[in-house]
Amino acid sequence: MLVYSLKRLLLACLVVLTVSGITFILTNAAIDPAKALAGDSASAADIDAIRKAYGFDRPLPVQYFDWLGSALIGEFGESVRMRRPVATLLLERLPVTMSLGACALAFALLLSIPLGVVAALKPNSAVDRVALSLSVLGQALPTFWFALMMIILFGVILRWLPISGSDTWLHFVMPAIALGYYATPAFMRLTRAGMIEVLASDYIRTARAKGLRPPTVLFKHALRNAVIPVVSLAAVQFGFMLGGSVVIETIFALHGVGFLAWESISRSDIPVVQAIVLLISLFYIVLTLLADLLNAYLDPRIRVA
Amino acid sequence: MMKQWATAVSAAALALACGVPEAAAQKSKDTLRVAWQYTIENVDNYFNTNREGILFSRMVFDNLIDRDPKTFKAVPNLATAWKWADDRTLEMELRQGVKFHNGEEFDADDVVFTLNWISDPANKVLNQSNVNWIEKAEKVDKFKVRIISKKPFPAALEFLTIPLVIYPNEYYAKAGPKEMGLKPVGTGPYKVTKIEPAKEYTLERFDGHFKGGSKPDAKIKHIVIRTIPEMSTQIAELLAGGIDWIWYVPTDQADRLERVPSLKVDRAETMRTGYIGFDAAGRTTNKAINDVRVRQAIAHAIDRDAIIKNLIGGASRKIHAPCFPTQFGCDDSVATRYDYDPAKAKKLLAEAGFANGFDLDFYAYRPRDWAEAIMGYLTAVGIRPKLQHMTYIAVRDKNHEGVTPMYFMDWGSYSINDVSAIMPNFFGGSPDDFARDPELQAWLQAGGATVDEKVRKENYAKAVKRITERAYWLPMFSFVTNYAYTKDLDFTPFPDEIPRYYQYGWK
Amino acid sequence: MAAPATFDAGRLAPERALALGPVALLRRRIFGHRSLMLGIVVLGLMLAMGLLAYFIAPHDPYAQSLASRRFPPIWHAWIWDDPKAGWNNVLGTDKVGRDYLSRLIYGARISLLIGFATMVISGLIGTTLGVLAGYFGGRVDMVVTFLVTTRLSMPVVLVALAVVALFGSSLEMVILVLGFLLWDRFAVVMRSVTMQARDLDYVTAARAIGCSTPYIIVREIMPNIVNSLVVVATVEMANAILLEAALSFLGLGVQPPLPSWGLMLSEAKEDMFFSPWMITLPGICLFMLVLSINLLGDGVRDVTAPEGRN
Fold this sequence. Notes:
The complex is a heterotrimer of chains A (305), B (507) and C (310). Chain A is mainly alpha-helical. Chain A contains 16 helices and no strands. Chain A has helices at 2-30, 33-38, 44-53, 60-72, 86-121, 126-139, 143-157, 173-180, 184-199, 202-209, 214-226, 228-244, 246-251, 257-266, 270-298, 300-304. Chain B has helices at residues 2-17, 51-60, 108-119, 128-131, 156-161, 169-180, 231-240, 251-257, 292-301, 304-312, 342-351, 368-380, 392-401, 423-427, 438-448, 453-469; strands at 31-36, 65-67, 74-76, 79-86, 89-94, 134-141, 144-149, 190-196, 200-205, 222-227, 245-247, 263-278, 359-364, 384-389, 406-411, 473-486, 489-490, 505-506. Chain B is an alpha+beta fold. In chain B, the strands form 5 sheets. Chain B has a 6-stranded mixed sheet, with helices on both faces. Chain B has a 4-stranded mixed sheet with strand order 1-10-9-8, covered by helices on one side. Helix content of chain B is 32%, strand content 22%. Helix content of chain C is 70%, strand content 0%. In chain C, helix 6 (100-136) runs antiparallel to helix 7 and helix 12 (213-249) packs parallel to helix 13 (261-268). Classes of the chains: A mainly alpha (305), B alpha+beta (507), C mainly alpha (310). Chains in contact: A-B, A-C, B-C. Chains A and C meet through helix 1, helix 6, helix 7, helix 9 and helix 12 of A and helix 7, helix 8, helix 12 and helix 14 of C.
């Protein structure tokens, strides 16, 4: 287990390094950081002065490791446009995005696991078909279109839900649904497949044969085993949601990391963009690492691989 | 740092756990809820470049002089009287009994400190052109100052009117731009009670606001400003009663919102002038556009009247000179006029050797249908435009890089009613200058270097003639700003595109 | 990761299945699979629409007329007696007076092109990496696993947005960026199916008699993994089309005046309150296209691997 964990950890570190490297090179290739920092009215001499003062004249690899070193202790430099530390900006915006991701994930799981279980209990029944059709239809809807339609219906016509902002949990209902439904089909299929497999397994048959009550068998024995892969998929999906919340945050005026990223991209605010890409990659890597380790712990066969 | 990250995570949990939404109908709460599309980069007036920041500054801070929004005459505000001692020295008497939001008294020290601080290049104020004319400010006595410009600078009064606001010296020296950006302190009719940067700004009426200045005491008690980037979301909020006031509503939507019984719509012409800029100086790799005939052809190819009538609406006007008609020095009688004449356009293109058209990158940031309409006309005469639709800042940066052969942009002149706030910015040799015409630069310089109105007019007229004759720019139309708001609000728009929220009350 | 869908159609009683030859059996399965057929028919129609746009479209999709902008579709004439609606512009006109129907028809081209081209690029990258990893294992496998993990950890929407914003947006750019971002699923799936195929008896046999590695990969392995390839390809194609729409929504996708459905949605978003048809029509087109591609993928999976369905 230890060797396996170390191996995974090493891989994770390598991935972080690579992602940060790619981000750094791409952004530096596209925009001259000295020029961006100097502002619009700067002369060539000003830009040169800034280039020297901030060390942008050093070789790229040196700059990269310098940047990475600061990033490791949570310092990402200063936003060019807002003149505030990037770390502070991220700290301000992170709660909203995390809440959004958590709500979206909760919505997706609460919808898909019961559906998946019901579908698994009676494969190919009407319920199964409806559940599957729903998931197939849902996956073909463009997210932003779905979001706008919800705004019209629940925000403007029925006025059940607040439309924009992040003041209360009600503000998160529509954005969470819009962000979460896309993950639902995958969860549901996985739950369903897992349940069918587990229900057909020997120990469930044994449990049934012992005369345990069906709900006990279903929830205590079957579901617990069937949702393990769902949990690791959930970790992965959470990472995706953090990265994919740009459109949703823009529509619902949620001032989270996604919207900050979009703003910074359109204003060429490079330090912010770099920090956000790195942060989201890091989230993803940590989550998958945890999921892998959890799986390895639960299923010893993996460790050997 | 680690600790702060941990706090962020727990804050996320908190955000979910608390609260129920507030009810609508904010007239009862005496709170005006406003939505803006763009975030204020920084509420420190000198570290912000967008219009939203100007609106914010007008509520929270004060200028030395102000301008009557209808007559454009300068009126006293923090300064009560002023005169030019010589052509570089402006002497100002200051108002007594003015208090800042934090209780600090306003006097000559505040003015001297502010002007000297912002004009010091080391402090890296954005928009250097607003401040780099100031050589220094001097205190004469407690309520009298002297402002000295580097060169004779007739437009100084205009700059003191809008962009330059006065800060409390003691507070700012201590707080600096970082604190000021979070807890701004001024003399304006509203004080700031809460700032969530880029997201929400809460203002409250300042009860100690001074009397006798250009701004009355605020009528509405609270103002909440929210940044909502999506116009469709803003409209949805307005329809659902979550927001009371929005602006920059697209013309088509304004027409429809007008029919909603609970709402009112205003369409007001503004000083903002739309133009198409061309690379006449050969800064880009597009050779065709350097030919004056090609630029003239484009000018003839576009039916500005149809665009104004169908897409802009309201009180928008076709413009011939590269400035807003009311601006001093904006003489459009000498401007070359380009009528819509596609046949002539084709002829000019053929003469220039582009009978079969050419490829042209076209940069724009305003509503896409405007750009598309312009492109439609270009396509009709055989030009093959390729749209690069970006944000304002991105297009501006591309301009500065010199890679934009043709761009549709606009300029609000900081609401300064003098061509020195527009023409030198774009033809005076700056990174925005795509004419690079030394003669033109000299005229603009001459027009800006004196207070003699006759000399200024002559030089600016020459500049207008040159710019339009050689089609460095195709001036398009004056902008119309569409406002939509709840019927309860007593609102008046102003041509300088600055809503004065402190003047508005409830019906 | 996703378990196979179960659409019951196409399932045959065992005794009948045994009576048929393999080709006939497959044909039976395909034609008996209702959702697969639906997918094929809709996708076929879209494809025909895109290819024959020039002949079908009633107007030039780029011809603008500011005097006749925002005409409503024909049913507004029937229901509300709107005098602007008429047969000349059956589905109305857009903000600068271009025929909506013609733009929708030409739009099929753009969406299909983006989906297909992206799928080809990402498919080439992903399949190559996946097959190499699966076939050779060991170090190669480690490198590919590392690449896949790296790719997965980069947020697709953000990276695509950033690249397009920094280097300029155009149809080609969108295709390239998405192509280089969406290959991970190809690699993962191809890797595991290649691993399975590698150990099949006849592949081992081919290796034993000394066939060259490229020969084995192309002639023995590829036919075994082509079904999975088709399934992944449909998923990624659908994905690419939706991503393009999202990029266009933020103004960083395909640039006007190209009639992309994503762009049309984006341009109509402010009209959703008062002219809902403007956002509904391209929305339906996009939805139908993505749905048909997904149905095709699910169907192919059901039909080619019926035994592994549950």
